[in-house]
């Protein structure tokens, strides 16, 4: 039986030697060293390729030049044609004011224009009449001169005969009186002509050098009509830009006042981003550098593109309601942030519209000069 056991042990394969703990530790350290080296090489490659070429921040928010819708004429609100969050186009009617009073003003201005045109035509007719009067005064002067010459001749003849006694004193006196009357008549005729000429000149000043359309009185009346028609057109308040209706605060029957906002129109395809970078990140930032952005709304899968259009003139703390008093005794240095304005590509905004105030992440390619 012992022989059988011996043969069985001899036929069995030899047992695998067990690795010592020291060899296992050495192998693990080797793999760890290789992993660290690979990570170092990867980081070095990334640093050479990308490090120092971009500056990033997630302290960035969407902004836009919002248009305030305010009435330019006062009046009761007759219709409100839009609702909050509605998308509108530039020129689309938003609110209609009651235009009854304004239409009356238009009718009054139109009537005043007609009166002004008729008045100027009257000036033109007066000019012809005054020209006739001036001709009549010329005829009076000619007649008065003829009478003066006749009476002068009679007076000279009688004065020559009076010395011989052929003409009585009464007859000579009558001749002298007739001559004096002729002189007075001539002076009166000349004065009448001067008055007629002055009247015509005064009337000519009102119409000379301009047509009926360009006459100052007609032009002023036409301007008043245009102002009334403009006020009438402004009773229909239209959207100044494309965008979304926001902050709507107008209802039918409300008395609209000039300059009081009724609503706002927020553009969705003409937005920008204000990215607040730390001051230590701005050394290489220049206007015109490209920017890649992502929005928390759409996630990292949607990339927005833009360019730096400017840097603010001061930090946020400098323009805060209560600026920091750094001259006080207990001072702690805080890294400041400066807003950087980024204009977004309109094509990206058309494909993925944004709303003002949304959070963004921005990465500026500072390796690019522009």
Q: What integer value in Å does the Rg equal?
A: 51 Å
String of helices and strands: HHEEEEEHHHEEEEEEEEHE
Percent of sequence in beta strands: 15-25%
Judging from the principal axes of the Cα atoms, what is the shape?
rod-shaped
Q: Characterize the largest beta sheet: strand count, sense, and whether it forms a barrel.
A: 6 strands, antiparallel, barrel
Mean of pLDDT: 82
Name the strands of the widest sheet in spatial order. Answer: 1-10-13-12-11-14
Oligomer: single chain
**Which blocks of ≥5 consecutive residues have pLDDT under 50?**
4-8
Structural class: alpha+beta
Number of strands: 14
* Tally of structural domains: 3
Bin the helical content.
Answer: 40-55%
Name given to the CATH architecture of the largest domain: Orthogonal Bundle
The CATH homologous superfamily of the largest domain: Helix Hairpins
CATH topology of the largest domain: Helix Hairpins
User: What's the CATH class of the largest domain, please?
Assistant: Mainly Alpha
Our count of helices gives 6
Q: What distance lies between the first and last C-alpha atoms, to the nearest angstrom?
A: 95 Å
What does this protein look like?
With 370 residues, the protein is an alpha+beta fold. It folds into three domains: 52-65 and 266-365, Elongation Factor Tu (Ef-tu), domain 3 (Beta Barrel); 67-99 and 233-264, RNA polymerase II/Efflux pump adaptor protein, barrel-sandwich hybrid domain (OB fold (Dihydrolipoamide Acetyltransferase, E2P)), CATH 2.40.50.100; 102-231, Orthogonal Bundle (Helix Hairpins), CATH 1.10.287.620. It contains six helices and 14 strands. The protein has a six-stranded antiparallel β-barrel with strand order 1-10-13-12-11-14. It has a four-stranded antiparallel beta sheet with strand order 2-9-7-4, with no helix packed on it. A four-stranded antiparallel beta sheet has the order 6-5-3-8, with no helix packed on it. A hairpin with a 3-residue loop joins strand 11 (290-295) and strand 12. Helix 3 runs antiparallel to helix 4 (169-207) and helix 3 runs antiparallel to helix 5 (216-233). The relative contact order is 0.17. The model is unreliable at 4-8 (pLDDT under 50).
């Amino acid at each position: 039986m012992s022989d059988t056991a011996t043969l069985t042990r001899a036929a069995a394969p030899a047992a695998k030697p067990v690795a010592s703990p020291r060899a296992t530790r050495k192998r693990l350290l080797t793999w760890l060293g290789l992993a660290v080296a690979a990570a170092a090489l990867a980081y070095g490659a990334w640093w050479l390729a990308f490090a120092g070429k971009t500056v990033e921040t997630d302290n960035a928010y969407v902004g836009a030049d919002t248009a305030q819708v305010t009435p330019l004429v006062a009046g009761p609100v007759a219709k409100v044609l839009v609702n909050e969050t509605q998308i509108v186009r530039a020129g689309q009617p938003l609110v209609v004011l009651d235009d009854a009073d304004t239409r009356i003003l238009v009718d009054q201005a139109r009537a005043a224009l007609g009166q002004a045109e008729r008045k100027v035509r009257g000036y033109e007719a007066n000019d012809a009449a005054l020209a006739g009067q001036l001709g009549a005064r010329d005829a009076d002067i000619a007649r008065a001169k003829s009478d003066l010459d006749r009476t002068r001749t009679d007076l000279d003849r009688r004065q020559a005969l009076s010395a011989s006694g052929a003409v009585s004193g009464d007859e000579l006196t009558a001749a002298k009186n007739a001559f004096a009357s002729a002189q007075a008549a001539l002076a009166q005729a000349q004065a009448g002509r001067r008055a007629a000429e002055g009247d015509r000149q005064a009337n000519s000043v009102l119409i000379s050098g301009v047509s009926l359309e360009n006459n100052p009185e007609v032009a002023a009346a036409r301007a008043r009509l245009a102002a009334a028609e403009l006020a009438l057109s402004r009773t229909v308040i239209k959207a100044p830009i494309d965008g979304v209706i926001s902050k709507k605060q107008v209802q039918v029957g409300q008395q609209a006042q000039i300059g009081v906002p009724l609503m706002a129109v927020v553009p969705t395809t003409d937005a920008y981003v204000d990215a607040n970078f730390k001051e230590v990140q701005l050394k290489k930032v220049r206007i015109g550098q490209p920017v890649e952005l992502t929005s928390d709304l759409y996630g990292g899968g949607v990339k927005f593109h833009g360019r730096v259009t400017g840097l603010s003139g001061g930090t946020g703390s400098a323009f805060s309601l209560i600026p920091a008093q750094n001259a006080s005794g207990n001072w702690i240095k805080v890294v400041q942030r400066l807003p950087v304005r980024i204009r977004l590509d309109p094509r990206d905004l058309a494909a993925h519209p944004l709303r003002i105030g949304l959070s963004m992440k921005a990465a500026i390619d500072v390796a690019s000069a522009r």
